[in-house]
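In practice, a research group might receive sequence data for several interacting partners and want a quick structural hypothesis before committing to experiments. The following worked case mirrors that situation: the sequences arrive first, and a predicted assembly follows.
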Amino acid sequence: MQRRRIIAGLAAAAAAALVLSGCSSGSSAGGSQSKDALTWSMWIAGKEDKAAWQKVADTVKSEDGITLTIQGAPFENYFTKLSTQLSAGSAQCVVSMQSLRAANYTESLLPLDDLAKKDGTDLSAFDSTALDGMKVDGKLYGLPYDTGPIMMFYNRDLFKQAGVAEPQPGWTVDDFEAAGAALKAKGITEYGSTVADLNLESMIYGYNGGRVITAGGKLDASNAKFADGLDWMASLVKKGYATQASSDSSTPGNDFAAGKVAMYTDGPWSLISQKAKVKFDLGVTTLPAGTSGPSTFAAGSGFGVSKQCKYPEQAFKAVQTMTSEKVLTSLAEQGRAFPGRTAAQAAWYSSAGIEGAEPALKAALAKSSPLLGNKQSDQLSQLFTQYALQAVNGQTSGKETMSSIAGQLGTQ
Amino acid sequence: MTTIQDPPAAAAVPAVATAVAAGTATPNRQGGDPGPVGRRTWWGAAFAAPHSIGLVVFTAFPIIASLVVSFMNWPTLGARSFAGIENYARLFADPVFRTVTLNTALFVVLYVPLNLVVSLGLAAWLTPRIAGRHVFRVLFFIPTITPIVANVVVWRMLYQPGGAIDATLQSTVGVHAPNFLADEHWAMLAIVAMSVWQGFGYNMLIFSAALDAVPENQIEASQLDGANAWQTFWAIKFPLISPSVFFATMMTLITSFQVFVQPFVLTKGGPGTATETLVQYIYNTGFQNQQLGLASAGAWVLFVIILGITAVQFLGQKRWVHYE
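A structural hypothesis for the assembly, expressed as tokens:
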């Protein structure tokens, strides 16, 4: 009958409309911004994280009258999601950015130097390492909110148990190896080996100044000193002072918390959470210093403005509030991040409550260089996990490993 | 038809004739309705519409788009340009691509036979005579339905130095187990072992159901003829379940070529490139090196490989698959 045909046709049309509306609703999320309502992308690790960042957004609302909507993603997927949104043109206005990766996003982020000059922002109030981390080719792409040099976390109780003196900030590679031998004699493994890019590069930088990314941000994968550094780390594993490296970057931290190793490398961003997790007395010191004196790499995060933002001045105002002394001090008091503003750092020391943290951190900061990002940093990190693992575990020499890595970086 | 039924049949014919006459008499009253058959096809199209539209939008269109992208130079952020077959040329000239293809082939060659043997063996063992076979079936199926990433994390804890395997060997035999995931000779075997544990339950369920469907009278007849269990299985049961075996082989081959989670989470493709598979290569190229054109080209090479293998399977099935 005629009516049944109409009903059937309407049903098909309704189904089609539902399907098509389902796939088009995704793109409207980024377009609902106005002068007073901006979106902010951030990596969120859970409910507490979201609550803490929401407080920051509320501060922006009360100070600048701008409503910030946080759009979060877990850290592992954050940059993949960001790249996809930027290429689709639906990115947020305020973009959270890591110093390591800023070089990949220079095409999508607005250089903030002119806006800072116009607004009269006092850039010298920021920690110089943190600020340099946010610069690529001399242009500033974000205001820093946290920074941190890679340091050595150690288990005070294990050291006391073995009768070994605690490491002091500025201790040398010889001290490190001597402590390793003493701990080994008591059946304790000293160091949890790592091949995570930031930690690995910092250890080797401290050992002999070898680096795969030059001070100018260029890749130098065939750096001979770095290859020697890999051989040194392999020697630690061979002598039994260090565990074998694993492709899982959370293994050294977990081994440390379980008491299997006496020390491992990490940044101040993990200090408060590790302190809460471990059942022993936690100490922190600088990385062992080798032939080029104490040195380490620092990494940080900050907030930038995407080029696709229609309201850059409002976004920059929000970013300034988010990195203001008031907000960073409150974040420091919560133990969230070591602030990128020098004035707020005192609050972090007092809330951390770890004996010896302040001199260690100050010593490390004084001798730290920002680890610059490079367009191939992500690939380098993946290649370290695959190839540096073999070098640290003694299966290949440092030189062979670095030439394999250089070959892959060159072809792609 | 027997002679007994003739009278009712003779009576039924005029009834049918009347009905047809009645059916053909109505169309003109409804103004253009094509008749009983035509009315049914409208409903068919209406019900199939959501699925077909979804298929076109979410499957067919992205596949064609990916083919187009594979012929272009397409970075995630930046300018795009037409590249012709340059992406494919780069892939075939890249030694790493060759290595990952060989790794994937090695995984397939190790995993598929092992999976089929284990699942077929266990399905053959779980005859209705085993008490509690349903409990066993559920237990064997659990690894298949638990999230694969969770399984891989647990297995990594088993394999790592100081983990369960190492500790057990230490306490029983006194030697350290090799560092399975960091040793280039052991890594792929460790991944295959974990994958077989994860995947055999699905095939086992298919084979178990197929074996249950083997008619009892065939098995009784073979036993009467004096065949033992082994002969019964290979001469009677296997040919009768061969369609299921063909299906399981084909599906396992296709999914094993696409292996990604196990090597990526266990070893991230290391040590070196010992366990890097084709899909991980595509993932790295697309999301780390941000070259979507090259990644799409890799995906299409994988598609052609899988298509070729499946075609060979279909051609070969005439020889060993018996459809009754």
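Before designing any experiment, note the following. Residues 205 and 211 of chain A are 6 Å apart (CA to CA). The two ends of chain A are 64 Å apart (CA to CA).
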